[in-house]
Amino acid sequence: MSTQITNEDLELSVLETDAAETPTAAPALRSARLSSLDTLESEAIHIIREVVAEFEKPALLFSGGKDSVVMLHLATKAFWPGKVPFPVLHVDTGHNFPEVIDFRDRTVERLGLKLVVGSVQEFIDRGELAERADGTRNPLQTVPLLDAIQRNKFDAVFGGGRRDEDKARAKERILSLRDEFGQWDPRNQRPELWNLYNGRHTVGQHVRAFPISNWTELDVWRYIEREGIELPGLYYAHEREVYERDGMWRAVGEVSMPKPHEEVITKLVRYRTVGDMSCTGAVLSDARTVADVVVEVAASTLTERGATRADDRISEAAMEDRKKDGYF
Amino acid sequence: MSTETSLLESGLRESTLFRFATAGSVDDGKSTLVGRLLHDSKAILADQLDAVARTSADRGFGGAGATGTQAIDLALLTDGLRAEREQGITIDVAYRYFATDRRSFILADCPGHVQYTKNTVTGASTADAVVVLIDARKGVLEQTRRHLSVLQLLRVAHVIVAVNKIDLVDFRESVFREIETDVQKVARELGLGSDGIADVVVIPVSALDGDNVVDRSDRTPWYSGPALLEVLETLPAADELESHLESFRFPVQLVIRPQGALAPDAVAAGLDVEAYRDYRAYAGQITEGTVKLGDKVTVLSPGHEPRITTVTGIDFAGNDLAEATAPQSVAIRLADEIDIARGDTIAAAGTVRESSADLYAALCWLSPKPLREGAKVIVKHGTRTVQALVRNVTGKLDLATFNVEAASSLELNDIGNAQLRLAAPLPLENYLHHRRTGAFLVIDPVDGNTLAAGLVKDHPGDHEDERYVI
Fold first, then answer.
1. Which residues in chain A (129-158) have CB-CB distances under 8 A to chain B?
2. What is the ipTM of this complex?
3. Nearest C-alpha of chain A: how many angstroms from B139?
4. pLDDT 10s digits, B217-242
5. Which of A183, A211, B175, B413 is the most exposed place for a label (fewest CB within 10 A)?
6. Are B47 and A306 an interchain contact pair (Cβ–Cβ within 8 Å)?
7. pTM (2 decimals)?
């Protein structure tokens, strides 16, 4: 599982059967089985290319989080040796981890991409969004996201959403139609047949594309390991000042200050998801390398969102409600 | 079977992917079976199980004194949307993921009671195998016949019939054997299990208690076959069966032609800019077969005579491959400078027919809007999309009797035959032999919705005429 797959391995994975079983000059039977990661990678690249071929103006949601980093890596492979032929879009809550924003900017620079930023803070400053009582800004991303999609006339938006993340996402299509208000109608989705994706839409509608729908968290990590993909450092174990709230370890930061009764301690932690600092929790971990993380994730007994996202705990249907309103 | 298993074992350096779907209604205990499979294969994590245990307790599931998984309504593990929980039904196909040491599984969980054809066709279109549920107390019902009929039509490679609730008939062998006989009879009527079409395996299970789901049960001593998960772990996936045997097919998705605008990271990593100035490759996913350097291929483009050329490069993100096999996504370079665009097909030379504008097909009608003769629709086939006119509906399948009856329109959940005229010729191939290049979508030109799943059939009289192989 932890071995690096090289091009030679790819060719080797086309195995010839025992020659003794194949008498005379009959063509050797081949078992041309790709590994699950190779199959998932090929599927994702096929989807990315379909969207680029069929849409006028796609964009890729890029937060610097691991799923969006994997998406961008797949896009570079899909169009090699050419450039990635679309811009990246980040909805900035204003509550991001600084090292993630730094990583985002370096990546965009390295790949020569255009970065479009939708800012939650600007909407709050203009009075078009109100800060929530619990201080969390993740649910506030929907309005700036839809605004950026409309202003830039994006007709397809790639996301790194995976069906294993949540019960509502399990029913999401790979190409998912959104109406003029960005809404998802889960009861009225187009059937998705074979690998034929129907992206037809009218003016004002757009499509969300989820090329890594069929990947699990473990697949993502095994792929990061295999491909040697760089991630923001906070995905790996590091010492951090944290305090405990709702059974989660929160980082001490400008937007995530402890209450007086919450004791601040230094712990060895890492993040399984990277989002709004005010609602993303760290997990206790000594996984300092990608190989350590693969082992940790494989042995984990909690889902990544269950372990680290306060905003998904608000109600049983938290994700479903946000998706219907046009969330990622 | 043994050949495939030994091949699999020798080739197993990493887990492989296996896609399967479930078909059945809520009453068959399908959600419970899926929940059991996920639970017993340890795909359910502690926080998910906690949430389900809380809800089960709130609803008084299992009654007083129930312990362990008996106190948990496993069906709740697969309830996704709020309306589903409120109404106790499943609305749409849901995808689940779990893995064993041997395989990673993608499970398309297809609800059976509403829009059963739509959901079963959707799930089966990508599945290597489909698990059909039967309630041991009820036996083979009309719905079972419908499910098996759809699976036969879609040429799913393996059908597993799970005779569920075997605990409720006191694990009696006679009940199971009777159902098994009925299933085999339906399978024979449909031609399943012959001519390389779907083999059928029948297993007695109790989803509620876990008998023969992950491990073999000692409460069914008369059953010597494997448990459900063992079957799923050892059946050959579609590409293990087919990909090496079929002729190479490659619908072109787009042309990669950077014209100097090379990826900065590739340049920084030492890519020879001069060598790539005139780079031109055709990107796509191999739908079947294998391609090797030096292979002769035919290029099919609308408005052109078929052209024969040679493969000079198989590229994948900076790697030069000597060969590639379905379902790999690659970029192919060709010897001759010919005009190739999205929608063209590259295929092993001498194995394809000339494109045709006459389309004979079976349609699985998935829309509440009925199909009428004379309707204008859009056909999406491979990487091409063309307008089409529905000339005739030539018949409709009676899913209970398997007879084709006269019809002039198709309604939601109907499966029928139709003849379409295309605005431009397409490289159509018989679905029986080409699961990808024989499949297409019918799309509503007004609202863009998918109306039908289409399966290409041979033209009448085609068999006598092999002149068009190019």
1. none
2. 0.91
3. 30
4. 999 999 999 999 999 999 887 766 65
5. A183
6. yes
7. 0.89
